[in-house]
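> call design_seq(struct)
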């Protein structure tokens, strides 16, 4: 059974940092490109960062230089280190597989950045 379990979200002040985690089970994790998405009411879900199985990374322009995606293939986990957070980063963050067909979404983790 495939499971995506996100964690690490919190309320943080602008300029602060958070590290999100996504534990993946039921998949050949090390073979997959993984991505972090975020969703806010009234907006389409946005892919903010991705990491290939060889750890090549790509970022949305809105987070370039502030967010870092990484992975631990031994722990089947993908991370998102978020620095210099802005109020516009407020969203529910999800992980998924952007190049292998999207899986059923997990519950996500709420990030709220106060000004």
């Amino acid at each position: 059974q495939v499971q995506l379990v996100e964690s690490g979200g919190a309320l943080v002040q602008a300029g602060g940092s958070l590290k999100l985690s996504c534990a993946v089970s039921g998949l050949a994790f090390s073979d997959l490109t993984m991505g972090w998405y975020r969703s806010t009411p009234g907006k389409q879900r946005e892919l903010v960062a991705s990491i290939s199985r060889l750890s090549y990374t790509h970022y949305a322009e809105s987070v370039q230089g502030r967010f870092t995606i990484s992975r631990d293939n031994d722990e089947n986990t993908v991370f998102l280190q978020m620095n210099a957070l802005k109020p516009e980063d407020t969203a529910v963050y999800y992980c998924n597989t952007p190049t292998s067909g999207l899986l059923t979404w997990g519950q996500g983790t709420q990030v709220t950045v106060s000004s």
